[in-house]
């Protein structure tokens, strides 16, 4: 009878530290690679990181039995007939009470389950989250299962010819009876795709099962996707939208540009972000376009995910977006100060909100505290932890922590 050797999470961490596994600093675009190196060096002797690591590996373990996913798995073929094209349906649009259901009418913030027939949207979310968590878990533990599964997930979605996604979003957020895709659909990727780029960067620091050929092919996919974002009408239209869609579009292009070595474009996108702070954040820190939504707290934090991630990207090219202020003192920190009382329970959120979730602000407040905001420092620990635990100490980059459908 053969004997199998099982390693605990702690054993994998120690094995990685002793053997020097994945010693290179990950060349991440939002995450600070040097902070990952520092956190990893402290794992063996810093008790404060034990619970965070346990939460991270618990999430990673749950993903080991799921995926990989592919756009070619869908049953509903997208407009144009190419199964390799990503497709999704606008989640807040509902059929009219007519024989053919046309026209579809918007019900802001209310998810239409009919949209779920386009399985790419849900599969994309699983692919995004799993690859990121698994890559991080490998980095900190040295457990090869995490790395090999993360690599398989990314290869299947982006690289393997039979299953890869075409590098465009021509058919995202379709409104039936009205169109075959919209520029607004870019939010399907821009809200979280930068985490996938960081996952690939972490794997490229020495992960088993992620070769230099994989890294090169993934980089080329991003070169092609960035070209589509910058030259297509959809990409150009989305980048000038004045609410969270525009903030995310600019941030996504900046991140991909940094990943592919286009520093000039990163600088350009950073310069586009500065006037947005002055134009769309008010003197009291509110974001009027997000407050007008039926889920105003959600969208206020959502927009700040894009601003804070962009600040992390800008720092890598020597630009301080955290310190930037508009003519009336508007700043990212000021916008975070505006949501802190509700996030900590000190004050009730007084704007429309269909499903208030205070934990949505957790990462944003962490980032602001790290950037030197005294109010945010005082609020850290006062915000409820997100489901699955607070991962900030090992994953110090802002994520959208509550469900998002648009």
Automatic annotation (TrEMBL):
<dbReference type="GO" id="GO:0016829">
    <property type="term" value="F:lyase activity"/>
</dbReference>
<protein>
    <submittedName>
        <fullName>Alginate lyase-domain-containing protein</fullName>
    </submittedName>
</protein>
<feature type="signal peptide">
    <location>
        <begin position="1"/>
        <end position="23"/>
    </location>
</feature>
<feature type="domain" description="Alginate lyase">
    <location>
        <begin position="71"/>
        <end position="349"/>
    </location>
</feature>
<dbReference type="InterPro" id="IPR008397">
    <property type="entry name" value="Alginate_lyase_dom"/>
</dbReference>
<keyword id="KW-0456">Lyase</keyword>
<dbReference type="Pfam" id="PF05426">
    <property type="entry name" value="Alginate_lyase"/>
</dbReference>
<dbReference type="GO" id="GO:0042597">
    <property type="term" value="C:periplasmic space"/>
</dbReference>
<keyword id="KW-0732">Signal</keyword>
<dbReference type="InterPro" id="IPR008929">
    <property type="entry name" value="Chondroitin_lyas"/>
</dbReference>
């Amino acid at each position: 009878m053969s004997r199998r050797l099982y390693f605990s999470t702690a054993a994998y961490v120690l094995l990685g530290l002793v053997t020097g596994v994945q010693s290179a600093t990950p060349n991440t675009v939002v995450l600070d690679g040097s902070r990952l190196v520092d956190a990893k060096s402290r794992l063996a002797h810093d008790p404060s990181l034990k619970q965070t690591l346990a939460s991270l590996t618990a999430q990673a373990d749950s993903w080991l039995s799921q995926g990989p996913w592919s756009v070619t798995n869908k049953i509903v073929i997208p407009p144009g007939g190419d199964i390799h094209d990503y497709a999704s349906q606008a989640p807040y649009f509902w059929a009219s009470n007519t024989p053919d259901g046309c026209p579809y009418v918007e019900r802001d913030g209310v998810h239409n389950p009919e949209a779920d027939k386009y399985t790419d949207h849900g599969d994309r979310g699983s692919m995004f989250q799993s690859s990121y968590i698994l890559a991080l878990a490998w980095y900190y533990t040295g457990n090869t299962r995490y790395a090999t599964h993360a690599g398989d997930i990314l290869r299947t979605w982006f690289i393997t010819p039979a299953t890869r996604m075409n590098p465009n979003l021509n058919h995202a957020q379709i409104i039936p009876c009205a169109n075959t895709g919209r520029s607004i659909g870019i939010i399907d990727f821009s809200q979280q795709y930068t985490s996938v780029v960081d996952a690939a960067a972490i794997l490229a620091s020495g992960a088993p099962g992620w070769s230099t050929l994989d890294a090169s092919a993934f980089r080329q996919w991003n070169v092609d996707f960035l070209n589509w974002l910058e030259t297509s009408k959809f990409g150009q239209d989305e980048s000038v939208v004045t609410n969270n869609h525009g903030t995310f579009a600019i941030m996504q292009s900046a991140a991909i540009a940094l990943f592919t070595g286009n520093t000039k474009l990163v600088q350009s996108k950073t310069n586009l972000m500065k006037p947005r702070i002055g134009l769309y954040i008010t003197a009291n820190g509110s974001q009027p376009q997000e407050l007008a939504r039926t889920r105003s707290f959600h969208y206020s934090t959502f927009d700040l995910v894009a601003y804070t991630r962009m600040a992390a990207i800008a720092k890598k090219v020597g630009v301080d977006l955290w310190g930037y202020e508009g003519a009336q003192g508007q700043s990212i920190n000021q916008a975070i100060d505006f949501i802190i009382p509700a996030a900590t329970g000190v004050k009730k959120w007084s704007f429309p909100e269909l499903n208030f979730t205070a934990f949505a602000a957790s990462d944003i407040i962490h980032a602001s505290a790290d950037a030197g905001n005294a109010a945010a420092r005082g609020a850290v620990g006062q915000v409820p932890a997100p489901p699955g635990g607070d991962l900030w100490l090992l994953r110090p980059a802002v994520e959208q922590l509550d469900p998002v459908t648009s």
